[in-house]
Specification:
Layout (H helix, E strand, L loop, with lengths): L6 H11 L5 E5 L5 E6 L16 E4 L8 H13 L2
Antiparallel strand pairs: 1-2, 1-3
Helix pairs in contact: 1-2
Length: about 80
């Protein structure tokens, strides 16, 4: 198992730890935020997640996710395809 924490994991953790739980944040493969939307919102009428979205995570403000926790999510998603 890879225990290295990537820059993407650090960026994502910082962003979602500062985002209210009522929102989801969309990120590219490098952990750059591409936008937010209300949690549970579905795109309709031709609207889609921004181009390049690889990860979408719900905000964690008021709780906390560690860099390692985000890295674990990235590792699982990257090996699931």
């Amino acid at each position: 198992m890879n225990h290295e924490i990537t820059t993407a994991a650090r960026r994502i953790a910082r962003e979602i730890n500062d985002t209210p739980k009522e929102y989801e944040v969309m990120f590219d493969k490098d952990g750059q935020s591409l936008g937010t939307k209300p949690a549970g919102m579905w795109y309709v009428n031709g609207h889609h997640a921004p181009e390049g979205t690889v990860y979408t995570l719900t905000g964690r403000k008021g709780s906390h996710i560690t860099y390692q926790g985000v890295q674990d999510v990235i590792n699982v998603l990257n090996t699931s395809f």
